[in-house]
Amino acid sequence: DIQMTQSPSAMSASVGDRVTITCRASQGISNYLAWFQQKPGKVPKRLIYAASSLQSGVPSRFSGSGSGTEFTLTISSLQPEDFATYYCLQHNSYPVTFGPGTKVDIK
Amino acid sequence: QVQLQESGPGLVKPSETLSLTCTVSGGSISSYYWSWIRQPAGKGLEWIGRIYTSGSTNYNPSLKSRVTMSVDTSKNQFSLKLSSVTAADTAVYYCARAIVMDVWGQGTTVTVSS
Lengths: 107, 114
Hints:
Helices cover 0% and strands 50% of the residues of chain A. By secondary structure, chain A is mostly beta strands. In chain A, the strands form 2 sheets. In chain A, strands 2, 4, 5, 6, 9, 10 and 11 form a 7-stranded mixed sheet that branches.
């Protein structure tokens, strides 16, 4: 199985901050990576697919980059509605695996 | 706009079989893969498996011996069965479209308890 790790596991940030979350795969996954946002009690929402493609309707302050084994999700200017947990997902090979999540809360 | 809705019992006894159905509305179930994912309270997401509308499946090896997925294209539904459940199977269960999960159901909470 491909193991996904995320760093940091949690972070505190302020509105307006630039936030970067890293996801690493235990082996190369090309660009078969997606990012999801989940707010407490809510359904996960896809933000990014194919490592860097922005899901329709998602604000442009979200961006993704990377290929192979290292990927980043960047929020250019954190907004109040962005406080949530973020998960990466690899779908290069089975079983599909999620990262453990990064919780972004208010500083 | 495609919408998904999970349905099934919210309480299952230990050692019994959990059965859930996901109904697809606003679009056809055909020509897509459909996934099941679960999330124990306060924990991360776990992919359970996926099914294509032909009936072809891929399961997470960690659950493979207990999982069966099926699809009913006439009803625009696909289903999950998880056998021999224990308390560790208590979770919110989600259905989602495709392996890249662009559309999700609202989730249904399943508790395993006697």
